[in-house]
Amino acid sequence: MELVVQAADILFSPLNFILLVVAVFSGIVIGAIPGLTSAVAIGLLIPFTFSFDAYRAFIMLLGIYCGSMYGGSIPAILMNLPGTPTSAVTAIEGYPLTRKGRAGEAIGTSVFCGSIGGLISCVALILLAVQLARIALRFGGPEYFSLCLFAVVVVFVLTSESIAKGAIGAGLGLLFGTIGIDVVTPYPRFTFGVNEIMIGVPLVPATIGLFCVAEGFRMIESPGRIATTSGAMSGIASAARGIPRLWPTIVRSSIIGTFVGILPGTGATVGSYMAYSAAKVRAKASDTFGKGEIKGVAASETANNAVTGGALIPMLTLGVPGDINTLLLIGALFVHGLVPGPALFTEHLLLIYVIFGTMVLSNLLILPLGLTLTRFVARIANVEKKYLVPVVLVIAIAGPAISYGHIYYFWVAIFFGLVGYFCEKGGFPPLAIAMSLLLGPILEYNLRSSMMLPDFSAWIFVQRPISLLFLLLTLAVIVYAVRREIGKHQARRSGAPQEGTE
Amino acid sequence: MFSAWLVCILTLAMCTAFFIASFSLQTMLVADPAGPALYPRILIVIIGVALAVVLLRLVKFTDYRREFVKIKAFMMLGESASHQDASLARRVAFAMLLSVLYPLVMLKIGFLLSTAVFAFVLMQMFEQKLWVSISLSIGLGVGLHYFFANLLNVRVIPGQWFDLMRMLGP
């Protein structure tokens, strides 16, 4: 109880609270700018939080994370231009509503549902995270190996259309993770005589390069100003009257979003799509899905924000990120000398409570900020890419690298920017590379340390129940992937359009 | 298709180099039966199998004529040289080249100037007005330098030939 009070003291201290409000507002603005995502914003902000204490750093980063999930819906609804990939589904129903003159109702619904979805996932986060951390205390080498294997396989299966390309992406990340000092015996490995590489591939510059630098290059391919709409936006607040009718949709979408967030590598895009599909399946005759249906907006935006709490659960308890944003947040933990996992709940419980409180407050703040400032955000989100691209590229390259004070880190950010750009274009999932880069050393260490146990036999991985569970789940995902591949191959042979990469 | 080919070829080269290098790794601990080489070799085999599948598909489905036309257009040859896709691809390639040169230039002239020059050239690539490019790039360079060097007390990389901040004094 004392820690809860201390956490509240930290959160409600004037400077921290103002920072949180600014962070949520900044997240909304960043999410509203097409081409910028929460991952880019978090990646660019991490280096600037190096000198902050961990509490303040996470208050800012989580504020941006939650704010940007709502922000993407603004251009999606008003201009049919999703601010973030996660809002693509919102545009399907939101933009037709704008054309019918119901933009205010759509935006208002998005604000309320996003806030409620986020809050419900926070409840799940608070209830499940502590319990899961207790279970994780029982994890040994075999359990961590199986968990990391499951996470890597889920990511590459779900983020790539092709199992082979996903395997290459994941394999590349795992192989990059072997560079540097061996995880068990402290000798150099794959350094090819270059002394700087002995420290390995640093996670923060590499992941920021993969997502932010690569995004900078992608933004160059689509420069120009986005057309604005002068559609009326009245009635945002009065959308609250329609929320009680939407409760079944909101609750269902919150559960879907939270669950999807817990799964490694899936993210809000999958969550919002699944929630939208579930709402559509349950459509009544009077519903107008595809032509502007408010339930569609409610479903996608609720799930969108519900993913935030869910994704933090495996990140905090097991060190396995739920999506790109939490992968970057793990980098932020490392920067502050913290290691995600059950130890965080025993040695840094105050930080955990601050994180819980920040998530709740951020989702609550979306309501007043979204209701009052959306018109203003819609205008400033109209920034031209020719101003944005140079700033994003410079900060993405210099930001994560300069704090280390050595030119090697600049090369890492640029190299992985190139890797991220070409892999994305070629159909190889950058998220699988990043996830494998993070989990690879843990996977290898736990595999080899398990093999060093007395009387080791390979059966140890199946004799221990938690390890067996993860291995069975891994097998199930692989079977799903193979069936999906076979289905696609059969569709190709029967004359459906073949898979293209560019 | 070009990106897929590029990634496959470079991955193949990387796997080959790592596989050969794995033979120089020795097991240092008797208690570590796997040693440092086993895990990377397993990865290389898995990547190799996946690469074989992807390369077979690429060989079968690549429209070589179309790719050749795209490459010609990118290199400003042929009729489609002025096509928007080729023009944007050249812009991206130029930005990549600038990014690679950025750290090299930074070693010579320091962080502040190299960052300002990098931002300036990028903005000029977007045909930004000259005064806007100059003011924004100087602002960005000075702003980042001040933030990292003064607020975060980070060691900002000095230039070997020339360093503006050293010239301006402490």
Description:
The complex is a heterodimer of chains A (502) and B (170). Chain A is an all-alpha fold. Helices cover 71% and strands 1% of the residues of chain A. Chain A contains 21 helices and 2 strands. Chain A has helices at 2-11, 14-32, 38-45, 54-71, 73-79, 88-99, 103-136, 141-158, 163-176, 203-220, 247-262, 267-281, 294-318, 324-335, 342-347, 349-380, 385-402, 407-426, 430-451, 460-463, 465-493; strands at 180-181, 188-189. In chain A, strands 1-2 form a two-stranded antiparallel sheet. The radius of gyration of chain A is 22 Å and the shape is globular. The termini of chain A are far apart. The model of chain A is unreliable at 498-502 (pLDDT under 50). With 170 residues, chain B is mainly alpha-helical. Chain B has 7 helices and no strands. Chain B is flat and about 60 Å long. The N and C termini of chain B lie far apart (53 Å).
Give the end-to-end Cα distance of chain A, rounded to a whole number of Å. 55 Å
Average pLDDT of chain A, rounded to a whole number, is 84
End-to-end separation of chain B in angstroms reads: 53 Å
Element-level helix/strand string of chain A: HHHHHHHHHEEHHHHHHHHHHHH
Number of discrete helical segments of chain B:
7
Shape of chain A: globular
Mean residue pLDDT of chain B? 83
Our Rg estimate of chain A from Cα atoms comes to 22 Å
Regions with little confidence, pLDDT below 50 for 5+ residues of chain A: 498-502
Number of helices of chain A: 21
Structural class of the helices, strands and pairings of chain A? mainly alpha
